[in-house]
């Protein structure tokens, strides 16, 4: 194919229109930088939506995929394989979990988690205990079940009837959960930091309060750590910032550093309800994905890297506050580790995408989290100089919209 035809216009001709990508097409990447077809350079603060934990083309990941590609690509779960077992051991040794299920994405990890929660309750308490409590503004995936558990009506519109038995509480409001929870509740599903909902961290004591409510009603506590996991917040998983642990945890995105993989973690007691034949995945846990994931965890499991996440967080926050002091465009700057959100003031509500587009024109890529929040999810090892350079470009973009 003529490479001149591979452009944004071609996307409109050949792709289902469920995406609306930027008008640039990146073709190469290294570290925290990308280059498009014309050779234009961009600082990447988006990180593939919290996926590229080690940036682009990290040498350890490249080596892992090259070596594994010469050994074994795929088997299906008729067999197990060495990289999958090694990865499961890594996850178990470093978390609360005793058992792991591998799949290909965050949606699939959450689908497995929600099915397991219902199956466990069915096995131990009966069919009446099937209700799930989720939270308004939450996001858990795009399958019919996960989009139902997600607390955003816009993602369910046009796909009803959706699965029954899901209720929505208000995030960071324990009283709203108390009004919904009962002995028919099988699980409470929560993000320790709401990502798509606006980068909203859990309030102090909120997650611990959910743990107590779940214990009281014999319900499972499910943490969706698809976006907050794998050191994004400065610890391997965000629950580690609290005094409690979930019953089930889901992980994806940064777990593969850019290679598709997802995982559901749980205890041996709960895992028993997923007996032979109850759930599965053709590609889940394939040796290629697991080998790459092992290289990601091997690299990130480094005290210097982990400690630097906090330093890089502070650099972002301080520079963003300097920008805000000058332009007064953010109502709030929040987040944890390298999951950061800037909520726009009322004057610019609904215009987050305009700031993202302006930033792209200046050479820095970032995200939105809804219409009112700018979201930053860069590589966990992004160099400080790239942070400073990228935020300088962001300031130029802001100036182009609000004036000097």
Structural class: alpha/beta
The name CATH uses for the topology of the largest domain is Aspartate Aminotransferase, domain 2
The tally of helices reads 13
Radius of gyration: 21 Å
Average pLDDT, rounded to a whole number, is 96
CATH class of the largest domain: Alpha Beta
Strand proportion, as a percent range, falls in 15-25%
Biggest sheet descriptor: 7 strands, mixed
CATH architecture heading of the largest domain: 3-Layer(aba) Sandwich
Task: Present the secondary structure layout.
Blueprint: H1 8-14, E1 26-30, E2 33-36, E3 41-44, H2 47-50, H3 59-69, H4 82-93, E4 99-103, H5 106-125, E5 131-135, H6 144-149, E6 166-169, H7 174-180, E7 185-190, E8 193-194, E9 200-201, H8 206-216, E10 220-224, E11 248-251, E12 262-266, H9 268-271, H10 287-300, H11 303-327, E13 330-336, E14 339-344, H12 352-362, E15 364-365, E16 367-368, E17 373-376, H13 384-402
Parallel strand pairs: 3-15, 5-6, 5-7, 7-10, 10-11
Antiparallel strand pairs: 1-2, 2-3, 4-12, 8-9, 11-12, 13-14, 14-17, 16-17
């Amino acid at each position: 194919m003529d490479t001149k035809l591979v452009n944004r216009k071609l996307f409109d001709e050949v792709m289902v229109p469920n995406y609306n990508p930027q008008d640039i097409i990146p073709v190469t990447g290294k570290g925290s930088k990308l280059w498009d077809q014309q050779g234009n350079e961009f600082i990447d603060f988006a990180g593939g939506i919290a996926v590229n934990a080690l940036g682009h083309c990290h040498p350890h990941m490249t080596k892992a995929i090259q070596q594994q590609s010469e050994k074994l690509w795929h088997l299906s779960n008729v067999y197990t394989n060495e990289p999958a077992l090694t990865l499961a051991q890594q996850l178990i040794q470093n978390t609360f979990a005793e058992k792991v299920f591998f799949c290909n994405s965050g949606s699939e990890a959450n689908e497995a988690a929600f099915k397991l929660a219902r199956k466990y309750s069915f096995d131990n308490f009966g069919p009446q205990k099937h209700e799930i409590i989720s939270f308004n503004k939450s996001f858990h995936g795009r399958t019919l079940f996960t989009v139902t558990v997600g607390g955003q009506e816009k993602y369910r519109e046009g796909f009803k009837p959706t699965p029954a038995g899901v209720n929505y509480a208000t995030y960071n409001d324990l009283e709203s959960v108390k009004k919904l929870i009962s002995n028919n509740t099988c699980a409470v599903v929560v993000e320790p930091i709401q990502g798509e909902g606006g980068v909203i961290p859990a309030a102090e004591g909120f997650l611990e309060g959910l743990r107590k409510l779940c214990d009281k009603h014999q319900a499972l506590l499910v943490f969706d750590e698809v976006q907050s996991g794998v050191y994004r917040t400065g610890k391997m998983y965000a629950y580690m910032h609290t005094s409690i642990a979930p019953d089930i945890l889901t992980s994806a995105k940064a777990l593969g550093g850019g290679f598709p993989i997802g995982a559901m973690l749980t205890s041996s007691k709960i895992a028993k309800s997923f007996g032979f034949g109850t759930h599965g995945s053709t590609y889940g846990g394939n040796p290629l994905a697991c080998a790459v994931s092992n290289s990601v965890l091997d690299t990130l499991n480094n005290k210097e890297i982990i400690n630097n996440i906090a330093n890089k967080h502070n650099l972002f926050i301080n520079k963003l506050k300097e920008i805000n002091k000058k332009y007064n465009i953010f109502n709030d700057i929040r987040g944890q580790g390298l999951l950061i959100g800037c909520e726009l003031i009322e004057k610019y509500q609904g215009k987050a995408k305009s700031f993202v587009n302006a930033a792209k024109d200046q050479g820095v890529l970032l995200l939105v989290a809804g219409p009112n929040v700018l979201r930053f999810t860069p590589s966990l090892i992004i160099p400080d100089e790239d942070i400073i350079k990228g935020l300088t470009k962001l300031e130029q973009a802001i100036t182009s919209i609000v004036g000097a």
